[in-house]
Amino acid sequence: MPAMKKTAVRGSRTGRPIMALLDLLGRRWTLRIVWELREDRSLTSRALRTACDEASPTIMQARLTELREAGLVELEPGDGYRLTALGKELTENFAPLNRFAERWARHA
Amino acid sequence: MPAMKKTAVRGSRTGRPIMALLDLLGRRWTLRIVWELREDRSLTSRALRTACDEASPTIMQARLTELREAGLVELEPGDGYRLTALGKELTENFAPLNRFAERWARHA
DNA sequence: TCCCTTTGCTACATATACTGTAGCAGCACG
DNA sequence: CGTGCTGCTACAGTATATGTAGCAAAGGGA
Q1: Residue A57 CB contacts under 8 Å (≥ 6 apart), including other chains
Q2: Contact between A26 and B21 using a beta-carbon 8 Å cutoff
Q3: Is the pTM higher than 0.70?
Q4: SS3 for A85?
Q5: Is residue A53 in some structural domain?
Q6: Residue B61 sits in a domain of what CATH number?
Q7: Which parts of chain A are beta strand (E)?
Q8: In whole angstroms, what is the distance from residue A30 CA to residue B44 CA?
């Protein structure tokens, strides 16, 4: 039996939901994408790439697929990507995070 | 003038504080480390590695250094790593996130 | 003293994730 | 037809993470 790769372990860290969520959000651009779609914004894949400092389409599509499978983001044809109800719930947790960021910027 | 590398851009995304924070937290293991140190836990570097699925020491040290420079984590010699007051403030934003994770696990 | 253990931390080769550029098919507008 | 969008993909190159090993320093016996 071949040893399971670490990457697989990373994906199967589904024990505690918070771990799976942290795992998902702790990937490059994921938090940023969710942030850019806050407040009912809907952006096309290209507009989203532009908003995210011209991130490469490869990883952008990968993240969008992950977020869609996670039920946080959906694609409305002819409109663009936007948050699902569940995704909006997530961004509600970001409001305090934003306020914290302001305080954090004034260092410590 | 040589084109500035993307990595440099990523690091200099300091315009809006939330972007810098999202950039910091959106790196592998960063969210996880902060999570493991919640509720006044203090863990040695090795205990922290164990808690984080035996993450490699290389990246663990890199993340801990970043978090220390960000003023979110500190090292108490003879005790281990722990959150600063600012870091604890951050985890307060995680409590609702944890509750959200539970709902999210029951899918959508 | 010497040995053993643990601390934070580092080297380095390998594996994986991401970037940057190019380009695809599908659809709408004219 | 052509032009310009859309979502999405290929692929070579580069940045980043992994896994194993090991360092010096500090502490605790014996």
Answers
A1: A45, A49
A2: no
A3: yes
A4: helix
A5: yes
A6: 1.10.10.10
A7: 73-76, 80-83
A8: 29
Instruction: Please say whether the dihedral angle defined by the alpha carbons of residues B47, B50, B52 and B56, taken in this order, is positive or negative.
Output: positive
Q: Would you state the structure tokens that stand for residue A75, as one six-digit string? A: 């694609």
Report whether B81 contacts B50 (CB < 8 A).
no
Residue B7 in domain:
no
> What is the CB neighbour count within 10 angstroms for residue B50?
13
Q: A27: distance to nearest CA of chain B, Å?
A: 6
Number of domains in chain B: 1
> Is A62 an interface residue toward B (CB < 8 Å)?
no
Could you tell me the CA-to-CA distances from A97 to A104, B81, B87 in Å, in that order? 10, 23, 12
On whether any CB of chain B is under 8 Å from the CB of A91, the answer is: no
* Per-residue confidence (pLDDT) for residue B19, from 0 to 100: 83
Residue B10 domain flag? no
Contact flag, residue B61 CB and nucleic strand C, below 7 A: yes
Chain A residues with beta carbon closer than 8 angstroms to that of B17: 101-102, 104-105
Structural domain for A24, as ranges: 18-105
Q: What is the pLDDT of residues B25-82, one digit of tens each?
A: 888 899 999 999 999 999 999 999 999 989 999 999 999 999 999 999 999 988 999 9
Please check whether residue A81 lies inside any domain of the structure: yes
Which of B47, B39, B31, B30 lies closest to B81 in space, CA to CA?
B47
| A81 CA: nearest nucleotide by C1' | D7
Could you read off the pLDDT of A59-108 as tens digits, one per residue? 999 999 999 999 999 999 889 999 999 999 999 987 888 889 999 998 75
